[in-house]
Amino acid sequence: MIKFLDVGYLINCRHKIKQEDRLVVTSCVLKVIRHKIKKGSHLFLEKFEIVKDLVKNYYLTISGKRRRRSPKEIAEEMVQLLELKGYADVAFLFRVIARYYIRDLEEHTEKTLLRPSSKVSPINYIVYLRNYFKKQKNYLVFPDKVVDSIRKELQQNNIEIAEIDDRELWLDLDSGTDREDRYQLLCIEKYMRNNGIPEARLLTTDHGLPDTAQPFENIKVEVVDCQA
Amino acid sequence: MARTKLMKLLFLIDRELHRKFGATLFHWKMYKYGPFSREVLDVLDDMEVDGFVVAKVTDDAIIYELASTAPAELLPEVKKVADHTLETWTRRSLDDLLTYVYNLEEVKEAWLGKPLLGMVREAAIAVGLGALAEEVYSTQRVNELIQPYRRLQELRRRILQVVEEKAGEDVAEIIPNIATAIQQYAPEIEEALAELKRLGADPVKASLESVVEEYTEVLRLDIPVGGGKTLEDLLYESRDEVLDKLHEIMIALYMEYVEISEKCDHGCPPEAAQRLEKLATLELTTYTIYKLFQKQKIDKKTAVVALNEIVDKILSG
C-alpha cells in the first residue's frame, strides 16, 4: 500500500525510513518544512540572546574541553534544551540541522568553524550559526536550501515526491493549531483523487494526527514513535 | 554630463565614502588631469553597450546621457553620499569643481601615477588586520619576528592612540578618524611595506594568512585570561555583553577572512583587498570602542550598540 510521510516522520524518523513500500512525500510537506524553517530561523535571530543564555547555562557545569562536541551533537542537544524551554519553532530548526545534510551550511561549517578541529565549543557553534544566518541575509535563502537538500536526499533514497497544486488548499484552511496537519491531509487526498488511489497510509510521529484525520476516511494514520 | 565632470564627481563621492567607511567604489590614480580611474571608463563602456547610457561626442568633450531604463540600485549609504555630492556640485561649473579637486591636500601632494585613496588600502590592511586579536588577547603574528611586521605593530599602536585621544562620545566619528590617522602615518607604513616587498612578501596576502591563523588560535578559546581561567570559561560564566559582542565580532571576522583567503591564492584581487580594507578598519574601530568603554569614556549601552552594528557591517558582505 502507498505510504505517505508527514513532516514529523520525515524529520524525526529519517533513520527509520526503509524502502519496503511505495513511500511518497507530497510537495506540501516540503512547503510546511520551508515555512517552519523560515519561522524557526527568524525566531532564532530574534531570540538569540535568550538562546545563547540557555547554551551558557546548560554547558556551564561541564568543564573545559569536555564541552566540545561535533556540530550535529550540539544541534541535537539544543533540540532537547529548546523544547524543554518551550521554543518549539527554534527546536525544529535545530532538529533539521542535526538530522539532515544542508549542503551550503555543512560546507561552510567545514571550512570555517571546523577548520581547526572537528569538535567545537557550543558557544562558538551557536554564535557561528547566528552569524551564518545573518551573513548577507542568508536567513532569507536558508529555507530554500533546506528544502533543496531534503529533496535531493529523498530522490537519492527513491522516495517519490508528489507535486501537488495546492493553491486553493493552503488558502482555504482556516487558522488553528492543526492547520498544517489538515493542509498535509488535503494534499494527500487531492493526490489520491487525481491518481485514482482508493486507500493510503500516512506515517506520522504526531499522536494528535489520528483525530485531525478522522474526516479523511480513506487515509489510515499510523503513529510511529521514533525520536532518536 | 561631461566625462571630466563625471570623473571628478565620482572621485569626490569615493573620497567621502573612503572617509566615512574606509572603502571606495573605484581605484584612483593621479594622472596629468587629476584623479582618474580606468574602472570608471570600463563601467561607462559596459553601460553604453547595455543601453543604460548614451555617449555623445561633441567638439571638446564626451557627454554621457542617462537612458530612461538605467538601473539605479545603490546601497543607501552610497546613495546618501552620492546625493549630497551631486547636490553640492551639479549646478556649479566644471572650473569650480576642478579648482576644488586640484586643491585637495592628497591631490596637491600626489605625483603622476600615485594611487589615491587606495594607497591607504594596503596600509589599512597591514596595520588593521588582526588588531583585535593581538591587542585584546595578545596573540602573536606568525611573522612577528620579521622586523617590518614589528614596525607595523608599533605604527598600529600609535594610530590607535591617536584615534583614542581624538575620540569623543560620538562613536560614528571613529571610522573617519582612523582613516585620517592611517593617512597621517602612511609614509612610515609605506616604508615598512616597501621593506616587506623587498623581502619578497606580498603584504596583503601575508597579513591575511597571518590573521586567519591568529583567529583560529583565539577561537580555540583556551587563551588564559587570568585567575586560572580561559577565555572559554569566561564566555560561559560571565554575563558581560561587551565580552560577548567581542566574541561575536571575532567569529564574524574569522568567517570573512577564511572566505576571502580562498580568493587570494595568487594575490588578492581588488574586490578582496577592498573588503579586507573595510574589515581592517572595523577591527581598529572595535578595539577603539572597547578601549573607550574600558576607560569609561562611553557607557556599556553605547558600546554594545556600536559593537552590534560592527557585527552587521562585517557580515553585510
Mean pLDDT of chain A: 92
Structural class of chain B: mainly alpha
Portion in strands of chain B: 5-15%
First-to-last CA distance of chain B: 32 Å
Content of β-strand of chain A: 5-15%
Poorly predicted ranges of chain B (pLDDT <50, ≥5 residues)?
none
Helical run tally of chain B: 14
Radius of gyration of chain B: 21 Å
- Total count of strands of chain B: 7
Radius of gyration based on Cα positions of chain A: 19 Å
What structural class do you assign from the helix and strand content of chain A?
alpha/beta
Order of helices and strands of chain B: HEEHEEHHHEHHHHHEEHHHH
What spatial order of strands do you see in the largest sheet of chain A?
Answer: 3-2-1-4-5
Question: So what's the CATH class of the largest domain in chain A?
Answer: Alpha Beta
Any guess at the CATH architecture of the largest domain in chain A?
3-Layer(aba) Sandwich
**Portion in helices of chain B:** 55-70%
Q: Provide the number of structural domains of chain A.
A: 2
What series of H and E elements makes up the topology of chain A? Answer: EHEHHHHHHHEHHEHE
Span from first to last CA of chain A?
26 Å
Continuous helix count of chain A: 11
Outline type of chain B: elongated
Q: Could you explain how this protein is built, in words?
A:
The complex is a heterodimer of chains A (228) and B (317). Chain A folds into two domains: 3-34 and 147-223, Rossmann fold (3-Layer(aba) Sandwich), CATH 3.40.50; 38-140, no CATH class. With 228 residues, chain A is of the alpha/beta class. Chain A contains eleven helices and five strands, in the order E-H-E-H-H-H-H-H-H-H-E-H-H-E-H-E. Helix content of chain A is 57%, strand content 9%. In chain A, strand 1 (3-5), helix 1 (7-12) and strand 2 form a beta-alpha-beta unit. A five-stranded parallel beta sheet of chain A has the order 3-2-1-4-5. Chain A starts with a strand and ends in a 5-residue tail after the last strand. Chain B has two domains: 3-114, no CATH class; 121-315, no CATH class. Helices cover 65% and strands 8% of the residues of chain B. Chain B starts with a helix and ends with a helix. In chain B, the strands form three sheets. Chain B has a three-stranded antiparallel beta sheet. In chain B, strands 3-4 form a two-stranded antiparallel ribbon. A two-stranded antiparallel ribbon of chain B has the order 6-7. Chain B has helices spanning 3-21, 38-49, 76-89, 94-102, 105-108, 118-128, 131-137, 147-166, 174-198, 203-218, 231-237, 241-261, 270-294, 300-315, and strands at 28-31, 34-36, 53-57, 62-66, 115-116, 224-226, 229-230. Chain B is mainly α and 317 residues long. The longest helix of chain B is centred in the middle third of the chain and has 25 residues, at 174-198. The chains are: A alpha/beta (228), B mainly alpha (317). The A-B interface holds A 52, 56, 59-60, 64, 67, 111-112, 115-117, 121, 123-124, 127-128, 130-132, 134-136 and B 216, 219-221, 230, 232-233, 235-237, 244, 247-248, 251-252, 254-255, 258-259, 262, 311-312, 315-317.
